[in-house]
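Re: duplicated header lines in exported structure tokens

Our pipeline writes sequence and tokens for each protein into one text file. With two proteins the header for the second block appears twice in some exports. Here is an export where it did not happen, for reference. First protein block:
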Amino acid sequence: MQINLNLFWFLYVLLLSGGSSRCSNSNGVGVGVAAGAGEDDEEIRSLLEFKKGINDPLGKVINTWNRDGSSSNGGCPKNWNGIGCDITGKSVTSIVLEGLGLSGELKFQTLIGLKMLTNLSLAGNSFSGRLVPGLGSMSTLQHLDLSGNGFYGPIPGRINELWGLLYLDLSKNRFDGGFPTEMNNLQQLKVFDVHSNKLWGDVGDLFKQLRNVERVDLSQNLFYGGLSGNISTLSNTVRYVNLSHNRLNGEFFSSDSIQLFKNLEVLDLGDNQIFGQLPSFGSIPTLQVLKVGNNKLHGPVPPELFATMIPLRELDLSGNRFSGTIPSINSSTLQSLNLSSNSLSGSLPSTLGSLLAVDLSRNAFVGDISIMQNWGSTLEFIDLSSNAISGSLPNSTLQFGSLVSLRIINNTLTGGVPPTLGNSQKLAVVDLSSNQLTGSIPGSLFTSMALTNLNLSGNQLTGSIPFQGSHTSELLVLPSSPALESLDLSKNSLSGPLPSDIGNLGRLKLLNVANNKLSGQIPSELSKIDGLEYLDLSGNNFNGKIPSGLSSNLKVFNVSNNDLSGPLPEDLRDRFPTSSYRPGNSMLVLPKDLPTEAHLNGASRQTDHHRAPSSSVRIAIIVASVGALILIVFVLFAYYRANFHGYSGGNGFSSGNTERNVKLGGFTRPSFFSFHKTATTPPPTSSMSFSNDHLLSSNLRSLSGKKELVTETVERNLSGRRGVADPEVTKPDTSDNPPISGWRSSPGSPLSSSPRFAEAYEQPAMLNVYSPDRLAGELFFLDNSIVFTAEELSRAPAEVLGRSSHGTLYKATLDSGHMLTVKWLRVGLVKHKKDFSKEAKKIGSIRHPNVVSLRAYYWGPREQERLILADYLVGDSLALHLYEGTPRRYSRLSFRQRLKVAVDVARGLCYLHDKSLPHGNLKPTNILLSGTDLNARITDYSLHRLMTPAGTAEQILNFGAMGYGAPELSSASKPLPSYKADVYAFGVILMELLTRRSAGDIISGQSGAVDLTDWVRLCAHEGRGTECFDREMIASGEQTSQKSMDDLLSVSLKCILPVNERPNIRTIYEELCSVSV
């Protein structure tokens, strides 16, 4: 065989050379081939073949990889860039081409001829290609580093044959699929790094096979399983373990397991679904970094983590459910501590040891802020936001000497702002917003050369803005302008003029002094700030003209609710909507072609600022209402006909449907679906059905108002009663179950102007999926938290939960008792299998406490059999909690509960957007509230990614008709879901939470009939925001300040700003977190 191979190479090289001294590869790069190449060493030929896959724009490899640069005696070409040779000079031992800007599709099989290769390092390039199984035959390989490239496909199982491998780094590529289950031969492996790929597997099974590894990094993948397996073979040697950003869903290490780690230095398990309590860590004397943020851990924090027995440098326990108190922190090594977003309580720690950074935000700490005086002077970053801390900040120069960032947002601090904050040489960020601070603003804050971000908004500060007087000369003698980039003093009681010295803040990008008592003229010196992007002077007493020459970079500009006059500067025309100037400023002369208050519903040049004009909305509503009424009558008639024929015997269908072998279920729960080889007709997927549940959570609008079509029933059941599985079923002839002819609304309010929920009754029946063979379809799991077969799913009892534009939603109970929601997608809605699979995997990667995760999908042989599966969540939709009719099962939501729902939804949206997934269909029916705490979870997200363009367009059309569609979607030629459109829909939901009015309601007022967003906007502009609020929420007896409701209203209005002014969801989330209750 070796002779044949050599003969092949000889003939191949002769053919390429054609008798000449040079040829070119497919990349047009010259490859030196001598006429006598058949006699050359095999290793050079292997390298030249490998070279053909390399694109080298800088010539760092190509220019040296030719025969002119090889040894005259053949063997190893030691002069080639990146090539290392053995001591004899005959064999290639290393190929190191790291960070050279190379690319190309590499063929690894060309390297199999390098019999002595020990080091292959291609890190930090843009190579692509697959790893071939033949790589396992390179038994001499000790160091394999392919990190930071674009290699793809599965990891071949034969990698287990690399007996001598010490170092394996495949990180930051596009590898996917299950990681090889056998790694027991890699006994010498010290470094195992595959982070940032799409690999999956049971981490417990993998750990059992790793024996001498010192570093393990599986982060940013799809690994699953728990940590309770056998780790004894790994624990003796491992120093670094990073399993963050995976799908781990088991318990944390047990006390017995954690004691086995004798040399562990770094343990990162963040962003998983790990639950349980933390054990004692006293037996790990080497632990330096512990990160378990964003999991489901609970219980007290082990006190030894704050003591000196463990040399921790970094501790991150954020985003869990830890409780209890933190009396003190005495560690002399701990430098970074993050305990944010837990349920910790009690007083702030009395001491912080040697910490440099501490984040205790979003807990329930109480007590006096003066305890900071005991914390020492080494702290650089402090965040105590969203607690219940009171008292006055200490005015100590020593205290703030090393601080870089101080954030104590949304507490109840009193007293003044310490002047010593401005004297710090390092302090860059000060955010004391949403407290009860009083007094004047220290002038030292405006002379600091370090401060870049100052936020004192939402306090009770008085006096003037201290740019003038003695501080003016101070400013003028500074060697350069102050470093301030963001200044927010809004929502205080500041008075006097806006000093002209504001123009000296040359680096300023944001200036917000809205809702104060400032007066005088707007200083023309603002035009000196070239980089200004956000300017809000609204809600003051400014008079005179608006200065010209303001920054061309301005993106947000608001001077409404002042006393300005004169013409609008030419350079501001066509840049901002009327709402930037109105209401207020009655003497301000606006161009006639600018949108005015009377045209807030959409001007031709501000198409993204408002929706269609009210008249068009009313016409569309009337047409939709009539159409919906006709549809209801038709459905009821068809339903009656089905019931009538059901009593006549047979299968209950006309001759045209005789092949539908529908089975009667009586009072037993129907199976989810059954396969029948003889059946050819699929079950109907677009007809209407009602369940025998107490209520189907669908909103029925007033016939005179905007409707959610009856076929768009909310996708959740409101009771645990059994439901039907198919709309066209027959009923047994029993006197206890007389036929009904339609729906009846909640007692006392049929077809009222506010949303109600329909009730109807029907007997359960068997649901049949018609496939030519029982196991013809394929069931794909998106993680391995549950495992079952298509056959098990086919016999699962099922009940209807509801219908939407996507299809029908069922609840299915597996043999194990595990409950799933199964969405049967409507015919013609989804993409082809390859695209569907790719997008389903993307959506299925989402794991977050505020998002309902997909678990699997089923792809049947017929177009009608496209199912997606998720965990069943016990709870009801936000729509039900807001609009449930009488008799009610739920108490009205308090303001505190409504705010919590808003924060939960915003947090979930942040996560989706961070994962590059717009929701695309956000509405109250797709927000589920579960548990006594009413934890909100988002469902039905990003399903547009599974749809055809026509299906996506239909979803957006239905979404817009319900009142949640952003204006830019209606004006786009090819609308697509977007992050900003999600923010708009979220803003509408915030308005529904505040008003308990539906997005589709038409509200009559002094300005005629308007929809919800226009009504809320108009009330807010006219200072009548209180009139919008739900009276039952106000009258609930809860101690809620008017300011809190106004703040939430303000956030909702920001969400529905024009798309170019609309903030992202991260900004909205942070503002919601700062709303105090």
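Second protein block, exported in the same file:
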Amino acid sequence: MMTVHKLSAGDGYKYYTHEVASGDALRANDRELGDYYTVDGMPPGQWIGTAPEALGLSGEVSEAHMHTLFGQRFTPIETMEVKEMLHGLPEFDDYMAAYNNAYEAYKAHAAERAWEILTRAEDGLSQQEIAHQMGEIGHPMNQKTVSNYLTRYAAVGNKITSAQAEHNGKNGVQSEGKVFTKEEFIERYRLTPGEITAANNAGKRAHNKLYKEQTASQLHPEYGAGTDFTKRVSEEVARHRRMHDGAEPTKRQMQEIRFRVGGELYRAERGIEPTHAQLRQFIAENSKKHQTAIAGFDLVFTPSKSVSIAWGLGDKELRKSIEAAHEHAIQDVVRHLESNVVMTRRGHNGIRQIDTKSGIIGTKFRHYDSRAGDPNLHDHVVIANRVEGADDKWSSIDGRTLYQYGVECSELYNSRVQQYVTEKTGLQFEPRMQNGKPIHEIVGISDETIRAFSSRRGDISAELDKVKEKFVADNGYEPSEKQLIKLAQQATLATRPAKSEARSLEDLHTEWVAAAHALSEHGVHVPVDHQLAESLKTASLNYEQSVLQGARQEAYSTPLEAHTDAVLSRLEEARSTWRRTHINAETTRYVRELGLNETQDKGLISSIRQSVTEDSLPLHIKDTRLTPREYLRKDGTSQYQRIDSELFTSERVLAAENKILDAASRAVIPASTVDVFELAAQKRRAELAAQGHTLPAGQEAMARAFATSDKFLVVGIGAAGAGKTSSTRLAVDAIEASGNRVIGMAPTAAAAAVMRSEMRINADTVDKILTDWQSGKASMDVRPGDVLLVDEAGMIATPKMEKILTLAQERGALVRALGDYRQLSAVGSGGALRLVDREIGAVHLDELFRFKNPEEAAATLSLREPPLVGTDKPFEWYRDNNRIIAGDADAMIEDVFRKYSADVTAGKQSIMIASTNETVTRLNDLAQAHAIEHGQVSTGAGAVALNNSSRAHLGDTIVTRKNARRLIVNSGQDFVKNGDLWRVTDLHDDGRITAQHTGHGGKVTLPASYVEQSVELGYAATIHRAQGSTVDTAHALVDASTDRTGAYVALTRGRENNALYVALADGEKRDDVLDRITGAYERDLTVHETVDQLRAEHRNIASLIAQHEDISELAVQKVMEPYLMEGMSRVKEHPVRDKDSGQIIDHTPANGVEDAKAVLASPAWPALAHDMGEAYRNGVDPAALVERAYSYRPLEASDQGAEAKDYAAVMQWRVEKLNVDAKKVHEMTERPLSYLSDEHLARLVDQAAKRTQPMADRLELSDPWWFTNPYAMVKTDELMAMRSRTFKALQANENDGSLYDRIKENLGDMDAEVQRRRWEISGDQRELEQIIRGERPRSGHNFTLHKVLSEEQKVRQHLIPTIDLPETKRPEQIQNGISGHTLDRFWENHPHLHNTRLGTILRSRSREIGQLAQVRGAQLAAEKPEWVKQLGDVPANKKLARHWYRVAAETEALRDKYNIAPSDPEAVPQKLRTQAKPHEAPSRSEARGKFLHAQVVSTHKRSIMAAHKRTPKPDIENVQLAQARDTSLRAQEAHREGRPAGITTAMLSPEQRKHLQKMRAEKASQTTTRKEKIMQQTAQPSVEQRIADQRKQRSNRAQELARLKERAQKGLEASKQKQTKKPEQPHQQNKLHHHHQRNIMDQQRQQQSQRGIRF
């Protein structure tokens, strides 16, 4: 199989260089990485993928390579820079030599220090004297430090006693008659554990130093502002300084601050008091910024266990062949990833998904054994999160598709490794069922052998005795209860395999062969070496002749339709909808079971895959929107559509959903009459009254609906603890009182048993009843009038629910389904409960009775589903009430068990729940160890191995994990069920277990085969198994992989208390994990929901606006390109400036045309074009702007004379500086004349000129063009502050070459301006400049008003070259049904884009957005989310209604863009309309928020005013209008997609069905071209249209039935009025009632027959 894992930037890569690369074992400090790969020439790491070859990478993957690729991050760069980065690294040997030299140097230093301490200790000096003398020779320490060193030396064997040795002068120690010299002592010295860590750190520092010296400059480490912990510590240190007159805290005070702050944060984040060790670890983890960037993806390739066993035990030839097959399979998957999966993204927020160019940069590490030392061949392929896009830019991989295609790639690897093993060795594979799924193992390797080589631990009882004995010996007393739990935790960890020292493959092979011989002695025959190869070949040959050949012949003789139907059936069982990757994966899995492979049977496999695709119903929407050619992928699809966007379903799934909906709306004769139900309800009320209770209204309403509803299917939905069982008991009583029966059905045998005991009805599993019905058995006869009561219906897949309805319809029964779709759903295509509730309606139970605390009951409802109004904080109550504890996994497991154990000891019924099987196993181990220690479990009678390598002893609690109906218990009243808990009462030598049921007390002896495969320890339960149980207290352990449904189930099991324990991985925080759980829900959607979701995504206005903005950026580049060419071509020469003074000393020719072409080809051209476009929109001439930026100095030289790598980036840098000066001209608050408009300024200049005496000004400026210098318009104090910040930035970026050059150039410009102001201008000029910059008032005597005004005019004309903009509409104006604030149309209306394809695309998309705004607005009026209330009611006036729709749609688009929750009641939240800098002009996003807020307020006022004149539109009219507009838009979209606009029937007619069946029957004998099939498909209505028509027909049918009921009611009322005049006989009234019922039934049957649907 293949699994995918993320690799975070930082130290994560060291797992591969220190552990994976050495076989999952920690690398010894004195071992090099290459030492672990001496067998068969396996290098430390291999390059994989096509990108390394293109980059010229070969040979070993060094630790430096791994550090470069995965330890840091870099911005998107060019291919040449990637080559320089990866080739400019230290050689592997140099890298390891630096580490080893530093390590040995520290070791020598530590040994010398030990020599000095030990020799003085042997001289009899006191520890205080030793400390004093050590300080004199350069090793300062105190007495306590000396004592610690002596203890540590003794612990590792460096201790020398006076009895064995005596000091012999300065250079030797006599030991056992031998004198060690100082050099001999240092050579033999053993490092203490602390010194080993310090030596290792010294080696790491040497690594980093060498790396920094030789690495490329493009790397940017992830520096951050720090963590909450470091910020709080800084605040406390600052407070200490204030309170102690600026004194710094001492070392001890600093430690106290850190521990105090760490303790406060730990308690706040995790809800518990930390131990000293936990607090130290927490402080260490939070003292540095957590790495969050994804550096790569780890793909782990592992063949089936039998392959590893054959490889590990076989001879060298077999081993090499299997390794080659494994290698080829990995290469096939990598090629598939590069060709079809790996993509990257472009645009704002990665809106476009583009092709990659040169494949992936992958590194591959192989190791041979598991943690337990068993044969386990597997490879880690670590892919760098850096790929070269089709546009030659490097950026991150789109991880969404990588995960989406994970299953397909895993199945591809499984198939290929099996195929290549067979081709290279002749060995065959056979499928074996494991947990309900086929696992393909090599023929001849038995399951017993596989289990023997999959062991993972020893006997826990023996280990527990060891740790307890050690505790008593160390402490001198017996452990307390709390200490016993810790010891049990140590014992369970000790029995798990630890990371062992890496060994060569030869050593491992020898060990495995010895283990095989030991197994043979115990009756499990396992041949080895060449005998194994021969044995497996013989078994494979026999299997091929007896099984495979026949299977292959049968596969070819089976019609293609049968293969297609088989694959489709598997897809339907697993999900309601599927993607092409699911089709490929399921087809691959299916053909492998048939014994087919891609080499020999490629044609048949391709036909099956293609046929499955063609027979699947497409749900995805064809994207027909116009897209620029630049934004199309190589296959012609739009980059705005993901490659995995195709979605399919099948006719059967769609028909099943439609049948469920029709059943929920179909009228039938009720199971009970109202009168009978009232009698049952009165009886129930009396019973409850006698107990001091009342019958809840919600329970009575649900029971009434179940008993008296005239619907064929009624769905009841209730939260956990709502009393669903009590409600159904009342319904059962009423139905049985009417002479009918209730038959219970449940997804599990345990749930069915609960129905039998609590509801006193016959009940069984859904699978059992359906299987008996389909096979013709009569184990539970269903008769007319019966009611099939389905419990936990949310866990039943849609196809099974459809079969239940078919069974009921065939037998004349009714169906009542009960459950909660917010709890765990079906394993497969589910969502039936939610579908009925959403489309038809269901009965709800809202009041909770399970929980003793009403506040906790309310909290569970908040967790169950997000609120309609307000923020979604489902865990707030649990946090406030200390119900949530967080910490590392080991600590949480210990806490869960400790709290659980305390509850059990107190006599409460409690349960431990975990989200993963691995955690459940660990909790079981801990509970078992604790039970052994307390004598509740006896180990004297031995143990029996269970399913997951656990061992059961006498007294253990076990759980059975599979229904076994033949194992009868409790005098035939029960059988062994999945989920049953038992107490072990006897163990048998042959592996059998005798156990007693913990509920009814019945005993049973479980066969050894059943124990081996289906029995586990039962102290803890998974969330799935815990659903349906009710206890006093529950302790649930979750992690970041848990979804909201799982957390809801876990926190609703306990009546009195439910506690949540959050296991945190490295770097995770409690609230972050809880937020992830909060957002993870509703993953399994029905076809109906999926269709609606796809259409909503396709029409999402916020997404379409983002696409319009992205295309507009391309338009900016097209418009700005001629301005760039024009501006740069104007420059004929560049000035040459003195490096020190910045003065012009010469000129050099310029080649503007060629440089402009280089700028256009540079990666930063889009960013430069954007800045030019923004300046253009502000009225600045972009050509003049470019001219000024280009003329400053040549592009091809920096201050160091190095060639620039990105000309566009250099130009952008200069344009940005010019924009800074231009911005200063407009800053009204800083310059006295900036408030004047250009026209007003010109008039003042003319007036001043007339009033000024006609004589020359009294001074001549020495630098009349002073304002053209960079930063000339910046005030002096501000300039000095900018210079200081720039200088710090220069120091911080010394290692980044290109960025360093730009900052240095910027700093040089600032220095030149400072020098000019100080030394190069006269006092009069300085005064004039200060007046213009606003640094002083115009009070000088040297300047007339005319001079100042003229200078201001001159500055503006030069710094802001203006241009006449094309006429555009204001943002407030509405164009094509949407405002300019929401949709910026500036560029689509630009004259340069008239009559161009790009302009046509933009205008087409803006028109569609305007149309969608009206449709979406009408839908919002019908849906009425909470925030829409701020707009008021929809006015009846059409013009005002259109305005209402537009404002609503634009507001939702704004909310979607910034991810505002639908429950937020404020239409435009405060943060979206608040201006960050009030003294400046608002940004476009801020202006949009303020505009829409004003529109919302205005719309609300209009709505109120219009309501006085004319009644607003009623809700029904809003719904009808929304449907009408949606239908009209669907017709337009269907026309664009080339589909029929609509049909009159919802499903295919019988004639069409017959035609389809005939086509499929002829498919085997006739070849239908793909073109003909496409024509046949397009001639049929889409799934979306069929669903829409179904909904319309159901709505019409419901309205018709409502009219019939209303008419009948009026008739009854009229008859009652007549009865008051002339009494009627009772039987006449009943006759009239039954006549009314028959009329309704006849009407419905007539409608159904017209639709061609048979019930």
